Amino acid sequence: MWKTILRRILIMIPEIIILSILVFVLAKAMPGDPFTGMINPKSSPDQLHHLMKINGLYDPWYQQYWNWLVHLFHGNLGMSYEYQEPVTTLIAQRGLNTFWLALFTMLMTYVIGLPLGMYAGRHEGQWPDTLIRIYTYVTMAMPYFVILVLGVWIFGYQLNWFPTSGSVAANVSGWSGNLWSRFQHILLPGLLGALFGTVNIVQYLRSEVIDAQKSAYVQTARAKGVPTKAIYRHHIFRNSLLPIASFAGYSITGLLGGSIFAEMIFSYPGMGLLFLNAISYRDYTVITALVLLYGCLNLLGTLLSDLILSVVDPRIRVE
């Protein structure tokens, strides 16, 4: 397996190079520039010309790409034009916020989705199954941003149970206060994201459980007198996880990339909000670095899904 993983990583290298070229060229092709809105409107065009020249924005794209690539191999992704900070520092700061939100969302997604899917499949046609299916249909029919806006309005503004912006309160002190405040800020967007993310898990798992109940190995286990709980726990559950495991890697890396809708609506300072701001400000260095990071995460998600699938089903091996 380790040889396969190494081979897959080596295959990713030319893919990442091609992706970096495309991203760099498309970012440079965006209309506008990163300096127009940063200088005084009464300033002369010579100042704008000077900023463009010293930052190399008049050089041919291939020369700019080569300079960026050389700096990349030295661990330097450039300076953000808007924030006047190194891009690596910005991504590290925002990435940490996104990591905690993604971790909590992923945990809640599976904590809620797996029991619901198992329960609905085990009680097919009964009223609990009907209620769970209504929940999945309603959630699937609603756009994600509508769920987030409703959640903010009801639980944030009307009931005032959760904070509605930021990642940590300004008046906290001490590591315990900081940790509790951070948890409060990710609780609502994480739960709303988890409720939306459970839809596919519940539907896939329910269908697999219903099919597994009629399979030959389950009928054989029942004929041998195996307890029903043991059948569901050791036979049906594990075999029903295969379709869920096949896209688990994409889900994990997708959350790490930052939820743009959640971070925008909650003004949560993660990588998703950073990406939106970078597009608005024509911050080329940040755009290029983030899109390249998202591409690497997507490639990593493909490998991670295969590995998770091979762990869930020992018959499947990554070749």
UniProtKB/TrEMBL annotation:
InterPro entries: BPD_transp_1_N (IPR045621), MetI-like (IPR000515), MetI-like_sf (IPR035906). PANTHER family: DIPEPTIDE TRANSPORT SYSTEM PERMEASE PROTEIN DPPB-RELATED. Keywords: Cell membrane, Membrane, Transmembrane, Transmembrane helix, Transport. One of its GO terms (biological process) is transmembrane transport. Belongs to the binding-protein-dependent transport system permease family. It is found in: Cell membrane. Pfam families: BPD_transp_1 (PF00528), BPD_transp_1_N (PF19300). The chain crosses the membrane at residues 9-27, 99-120, 132-155, 186-205, 241-266, 286-309. SUPFAM superfamilies: MetI-like. It comes from Bombilactobacillus apium. Residues 95-305 form the ABC transmembrane type-1 domain. This is ABC transporter permease. GO terms for cellular component: plasma membrane. PROSITE patterns: ABC_TM1 (PS50928). It is a multi-pass membrane protein.
